[in-house]
Structures are given as structure tokens and as C-alpha cells.
Amino acid sequence: MSATAETIRSGRTALGIELGSTRIKACLIDADTHEVLATGFHDWENRFEDRLWTYSLDAVWTGLQEAYAGLVADAHDRYGIRPDTFGAIGVSAMMHGYLPFDRSGELLVPFRTWRNTNTGVAAQELTDLLGVNIPLRWSIAHLRQAQLDAEPHVGDVRFFTTLAGYVHWQLTGRRVLGVGDASGMFPIDSTTRDYDQALIERYDAHTGGDLRAMLPEALVAGHEAGSLTAAGAALLDPTGVLQPGIPFCPPEGDAGTGMVATNAVSPRTGNVSAGTSIFAMVVLERPLAEVHHELDLVTTPAGDAVAMVHCNNGASELAAWVGMFARFAEASGMPRSADAVFETLFREALDGEPDAGGLLAYNHLAGEPIAGTDEGRPLFVRTPDSRFTLANVMRAQLYGVFGTLALGMQVLADEGVTIERMFAHGGIFRTAGVAQRFLAGALNAPVAVGDTASEGGAWGIAVLAAFLTADRSLADHLADRVFADAGVRIAEPLPDDVAGYAAYLDRYRAGLAVEAAAVAAL
């Protein structure tokens, strides 16, 4: 305990902060061993205002301060010390979205998150113009849609960024992004590990603008990206204890930190990150043959090309069903913790039929571009001959989390992309051997879950912060220093699960017409 306290006191640590869709988390690690020393968190929710998903900037700072204060309190409770410095800090957040600022640094419109699907016209125009898939949630699609809609603020935009880029800017004064997060704003050239200059010129010729001047500088992992200013220290820690001058790594998106957290930054590896959204990242050995609307081309934090299957809807609908059963237990006079209810229901799903007994679940709380819908309508569908049991219901709900993802991954398989192993992380994988097994069946590939799976991106960005002092490639650093002795559990795809999920997915694909009808009718 005293040795750990000395590690914290002397700043031989790295602090990672991630602003996820439902939780802001701070994670302190030992910079040498990468062991988690303390954590803090703040729960928050997006708001649907004026038909757009958003978070207020006040909520950003309130949440960051609470998460940081929780981490400090946790460190004090465990080791009797309140940290006032760190070896390095990293900030991560949900990718994409739109935060435009004027010349004086004032936000021009409320933060538009990745979840918004109002950018269809712009996304299609840019995909045709640039010859690469530009998804609805990308920052450049948001900017272009605002231009096409002649929104009053567009003439005043001098700079736009992501949520991670905004927080980093306020803490350090630097307008930069990690290249992985930048790749969700505008396409990256993996040879230069910077924005694709030819595509920028094509965009400028089409719009008459100067796009590069408006984008944050893109930096690869391992580059120092500024240091904590006095004003930034006061923003993060209003008590005044935190000292300025701490170096920062480039701010990254949740996709990049998920890749780091699962050691999935080398070709033929990939990862699945499950939360409010769910997405898969697969590091490519070669360019894709065609443009596919189901696949984004982004990069690792080191700038290597990645195919991304991003789904707007992840585990939120599953959590709502679990919450209903938790309330039933409470109303019955037998209250159970949320973790206990999740584990009970997940274990029950193991007894379900391989195809979920003919049941079908759509987790679409928001629009889902891969599925062709621009609004969400969660649905649970069965036919008179379906086997309506608790085990099948829960298996269908868990299968539904992976439904749209599986559609996109099939496109990647059709491109001939080989995956040796998928790594998974997120709270849904905390119950060992359930969601992991079903995902292996859905992808027909081995799925690995590590001991840090539930720590997720906050741990991943802390690892990137510690990487500032490394003298090797990110892939080698992760393999040799971070994951050399890491515990990993691997689920091989079971034949019955593979066949059962294939049958479920056929039903899921056919039932998208029902989902579309629900959007139109309700």
C-alpha cells in the first residue's frame, strides 16, 4: 500500500478520462504496470432537443469534475493520498458529432452528437464527391448539412471539433486530435497519417471553403499534445489541488481507445465495443475493393487503416428490459442489485434455443443507417408458433444487440477480410461466457475478453497517456509491455450457436420491413 501511495505521490501514473454516452469515467493507472489504481465516474444522458441529440457543455464540465473528484476520493480511501499531479493525462470521448466555434471561441450551436441522423443529404453528396463512404454521424457531414440547410451560424464557423477535442482544447489550449478521432471527422491518408489532402482540395473546390484551417491538427499516438494549463487545472479540479504542467497525449475517440484496451491494433485483429452504441473495428491488410455504406474507413491511434462497422444502437434496450425485471423483483419484496439481475437473466439466456425460439428483438432506440432507418422504434416480435420462454426472450434480446453489427460484418467478410480474433469490451461482457459466446456465434470467429474489459476506454486512454514515454511502436508496446501477462478468456464459436444465429439473422433481415413500417406508422 505504501509503495502504491508513493507511486501516486511522485506522479508515476497516467490519468485517463473518457466521456462515454452514458458515463464519464476517470481511471488512474500505474504508468509502468498499467494496473488500475483508482477510478471515478459520473452518469449522464443525452437529451433530444429540437429533434437533435445533444449534451450541454455545462453537463460536460459538471460530469468531468464529479468523475475526477470521485477518483481522488477513491485514491484517498485506498491509499491515504490525494493526488495533485500525474505523469500524463489523456482525454477520450464518443467520436464524430459537431462542435462548431466562432473566431472568439464561442460555441455556435448546441453540440450535435454522433447519434443524429439528419445529415443524409450531405453524407450522400460527400460520398459521391470524395469516393469514400461518409457516414451520417461524421463531423464533415454535420458541417456540410448545415451549409446545405443555410443555417445562420455557418458563416461564422472558424473551427470545429469532436467532444474529446473540445475538452482537450479547454484543458491545454491546443486544438488537436488523435488521428483515430480525426478519422471520424474527415478521411485520413494512412501513408501520411494526416487528413487526405487531395480530398480536402476536392471538398474546397466544391464548397469554396478552406477546410484544413477549420480542422484540428491530427497527431499520432506517442506525440505530446500540450500540457495542463492553470485554467485547465481549475476546470478539472475546482478545489485548486491539481497542479498545472502535466503533459497530455493526443485526445482520442472511443473507437481508438477501445482498440487499445483490447490490444487490437495489428492487421487481422479487431475489436467490438458495446455500450449505448456498438461497433466493430478491424485493422486492414489492404484497401477494400469497393465503397460500402455499411463500412467506415477510419484509423488506429497510430494511423493504420481500419474498417469500422458502427451501429447507433447497442445495449440500451437490453438494459431497459433488465430494469423491468429488476423492478418486478423489487415489487415482489425480493430486491436484487442491477448486477445480480443482469447475471441471472444472462445465465438464463444460455438455456434458450440456438435461434432464440423464433423470437425477434430490435434494439433501435435511434435511427440505424445500416438498417436503412432514420428514427428508432424498439420492437419485440413473435409469431404464434414462437417459443415464448424467459430463456428465449433473453437470448433474443442479447442477439438483438449484435443484429445490425452482424449485417455489417457480413459485408466485410464478403470483401475477403480475414479476422484471426475479435476482442470485446464493455459492460455487457462482465457476465463471463454469455454475451461473449453469443458474439462468437454471430461473427463465426473467436472472441476474446480480457481482465480489463469492463474498464474499457478510460483505461485505454490512460494507456495511451503512459505511451508518451515509450520508445517503440504502439503495437509492440501493447504486446510487450501492456498485455504480455494479461488474462484473456477466449470463446470459440460453437456450431449450434453459429447455425442458430444465422437463422436469427435471416429473420432479423426480413423483419426490417416491420421496423421500417413502425417508423412510418408510429
From TrEMBL:
Origin superkingdom: Bacteria
Gene3D superfamilies according to UniProt: 3.30.420.40
Keyword check for 4Fe-4S: no
Keyword annotations from UniProtKB, A to Z: Carbohydrate metabolism, Kinase, Transferase, Xylose metabolism
CDD domains with a match to the protein in the record: ASKHA_NBD_FGGY_BaXK-like
Pfam families attached to this UniProt entry: FGGY_C (PF02782), FGGY_N (PF00370)
Domain Carbohydrate kinase FGGY C-terminal: 271-467
Residues in Carbohydrate kinase FGGY N-terminal domain copies: 14-249
Stretches of the chain forming a coiled coil according to its record: none
Family: Belongs to the FGGY kinase family.
Name by which UniProt lists this protein: ATPase
Source organism (scientific name): Microbacterium commune
